[in-house]
User: Which sequence fits this backbone?
């Protein structure tokens, strides 16, 4: 992790969904689900992506292996064996097929992503059918090995998904994703649907796998405590755009964007001594992405907004090495990190 | 001194008859709710927390369950007692209590509203049913409460349909539904689970101020320990239908006793505290195939032979901290 070697570069990625109206399906506008997003994922790193629902996290994750076709942009992959470049507008078929071997996805709902009519062997071994010349016996050995590695007894191989618990199903999804020895895993809310005790098991497994297989993760989640725990760096998104990105500690202790600060003061504290103490509340909902506000998208909810914020969208600027923020007043606002916010609340008012 | 207690549940057992056999979703659960108190019920999925709440309101009987034994005593005032467990779930008396005196906020607000009637109409219906007021008066009351829970432009939003509300707004409308008749007890079943963290903060803030303002006793059901820490005075931890620990929230966080509670607290990632997460191996057992003895024993790192044979009794520590675990028995081996 000390030497930062990029494994994935996403450049100016865009996904616009057309809004069509009328009999002729005329396009009257676009929902900019992902709007000019660029970032780098380093080898062996976990990059967290956070934001409220509808901010484009999931679309971003799906655009990278082209499960959703991006409108524009490029994805560059620097693999162990060779480098691959996929241009959103002119994707080369062979490059794309190879890219998908190296970048695998893990989804939120393991029941929805496992075919109920296939056995565990068929599900987990399916990638081998198309990508290896192995015979059935060899495939069974491979599947058994990966199941054991992800914590499922290999003699359960001929059972069906419904015979397993949610945590076990998520393990199967992970086993399948690891089948072709990928270098990057995109985890889209991979632990959100699990009970806390199982969630902790899966998080631990992700960490161990990362060490053993030198995997890189794009970890998409809405739970900030989980993201803080697993990520080396974090990207904060709002309405399809990156508003801030930095190493995890900086994001949580020295946020530079008012939206990041709002996310931080929303986190429940798990501290009974703060019970009954008022805290700051971010009011309102995420605006309609089909008609985003003018200027900075966050100005309608931002407690620090001024006149300029409703006119111009602030550029994403590097404010210190590796710390990017898109706010007109970055640097001049005194935003608080998580520890300072808890302290502020401890000394603050109570509910009357 | 019974006058401080508003709800007392005693050795409640709720069962469901399923295709594969009979299950006790709630097994011998007892607790007291004081006036103006907030009680948290925590546990993972399938531990019986929702069924406990639904038993109090006698909703389980509409869902194929039944209260097999135990008492549920509700004290509307200090010297009036109603035994809810004995009432018929369809009786007039139960209908008058449900929604008016004891009401509930459900997890999934979309499933709790009828999609073909406007939000306003559905809310006004409750006022008309319970308070016997005119349509116009009901409408005014609903609009007043909708603006109070910060639904923007409540006057115009009154005629909106559920799908026209955002997730956060639907949850607010759900809260309005629950507090319309100034209930004495509010039960919130996973009120923020489906919501974004910013909206979760808004909703918790709202429940807290309404509780203080309306002097309600509250039960919050959640799997999220941080919501418990944030909101409750007492906590009851459940596992596979049984209570494993009950304590003052601060005492529970400072000194959890039951191995399951300890594991729950250690398995949530806390910001700023790096290091390895603690995880309990295995998962919650199926209620159809429960182990003998203590239900947690198969996953418990401290389990002895006795734990696997006999269910531990309720043990009282420091006069008020209840735990069901052989580790704290006087004669422990």
Assistant:
């Amino acid at each position: 992790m000390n030497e930062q070697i990029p494994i994935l570069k996403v450049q100016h990625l865009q996904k616009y969904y057309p809004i069509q109206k009328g009999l002729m399906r005329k396009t009257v506008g676009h929902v900019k689900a992902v709007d000019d997003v660029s970032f780098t994922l380093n080898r062996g790193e976990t990059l967290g992506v956070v934001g409220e629902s509808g901010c484009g996290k999931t679309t971003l994750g799906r655009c990278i292996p082209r499960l959703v076709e991006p409108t524009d942009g490029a994805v560059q992959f620097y693999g162990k064996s060779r480098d691959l470049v996929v241009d959103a507008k002119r994707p080369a078929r062979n490059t794309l097929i190879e890219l998908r071997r190296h970048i695998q996805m893990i989804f939120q709902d393991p029941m929805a992503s496992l075919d109920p009519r296939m056995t565990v062997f068929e599900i987990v071994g399916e990638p081998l059918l198309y990508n290896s010349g192995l015979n059935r016996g060899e495939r069974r050995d491979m599947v058994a090995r990966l199941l054991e590695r992800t914590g499922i007894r290999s003699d359960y191989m001929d059972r069906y998904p419904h015979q397993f618990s949610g945590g076990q199903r998520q393990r199967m999804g992970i086993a399948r994703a690891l089948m072709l020895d990928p270098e990057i895993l995109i985890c889209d809310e991979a632990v959100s649907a699990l009970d806390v005790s199982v969630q902790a098991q899966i998080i631990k497994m992700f960490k161990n796998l990362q060490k053993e297989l030198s995997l890189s993760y794009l970890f998409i989640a809405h739970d900030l405590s989980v993201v803080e725990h697993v990520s080396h760096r974090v990207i904060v998104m709002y309405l399809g755009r990156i508003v801030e990105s930095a190493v995890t500690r900086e994001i949580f202790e020295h946020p530079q964007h008012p939206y990041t600060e709002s996310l931080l003061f929303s986190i429940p504290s798990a501290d009974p001594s703060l019970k009954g103490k008022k805290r700051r509340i971010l009011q309102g909902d995420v605006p309609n992405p089909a008609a985003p506000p003018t200027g900075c998208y966050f100005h309608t909810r931002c407690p620090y907004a001024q006149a300029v914020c409703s006119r111009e969208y602030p550029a994403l600027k590097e404010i210190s090495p590796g710390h990017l923020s898109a706010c007109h007043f970055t640097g001049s606002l005194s935003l608080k990190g998580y520890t300072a916010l808890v302290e502020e609340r401890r000394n603050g008012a109570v509910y009357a | 001194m019974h006058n401080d207690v508003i709800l007392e549940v005693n050795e409640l057992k709720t069962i469901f008859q399923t295709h594969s056999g009979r299950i006790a979703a709630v097994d011998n659960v007892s607790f007291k709710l004081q006036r103006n108190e907030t009680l948290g019920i925590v546990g993972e999925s399938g531990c019986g927390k929702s069924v406990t709440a639904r038993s109090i309101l006698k909703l389980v009987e509409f869902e194929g369950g039944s209260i097999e034994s135990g008492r549920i005593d509700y004290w509307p005032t200090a010297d009036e007692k109603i035994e809810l467990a004995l009432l018929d779930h369809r009786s007039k008396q139960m209908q008058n209590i449900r929604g008016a005196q004891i009401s509930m906020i459900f997890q999934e607000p979309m499933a709790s509203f009828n999609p073909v009637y406007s939000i306003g109409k559905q809310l006004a219906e409750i006022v008309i049913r319970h308070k016997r007021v005119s349509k116009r008066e009901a409408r005014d009351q609903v609009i007043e409460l909708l603006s109070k829970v910060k639904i923007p432009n409540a006057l115009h939003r009154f005629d909106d349909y559920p799908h026209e509300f955002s997730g956060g707004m639907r949850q607010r409308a759900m809260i309005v539904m629950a507090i319309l008749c100034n209930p004495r007890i509010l039960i919130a079943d996973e009120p923020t689970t489906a919501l974004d963290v910013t909206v979760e903060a808004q909703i918790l803030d709202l429940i807290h101020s309404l509780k203080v303002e309306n002097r309600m006793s509250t039960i919050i059901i959640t799997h999220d320990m941080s919501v418990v820490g944030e909101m409750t005075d007492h906590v009851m931890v459940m596992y596979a239908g049984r209570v494993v620990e009950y304590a003052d929230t601060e005492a529970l966080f400072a000194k959890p006793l039951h191995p399951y509670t300890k594991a729950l607290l250690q398995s949530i990632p806390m910001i700023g505290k790096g290091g390895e997460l603690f995880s309990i191996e295995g998962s919650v057992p199926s209620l159809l195939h429960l182990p003998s003895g203590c239900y947690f024993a198969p996953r418990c790192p401290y389990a002895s032979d006795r734990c696997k044979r006999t269910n531990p009794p309720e043990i009282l520590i420091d006069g008020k901290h209840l735990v069901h675990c052989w580790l704290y028995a006087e004669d422990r081996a």
Observations:
- The mean pLDDT of chain B is 91.
- Residues 260 and 296 of chain B are 7 Å apart (CA to CA).
- The two ends of chain B are 38 Å apart (CA to CA).
- Chain B has two domains: 1-101+182-261+314-333, 110-180.
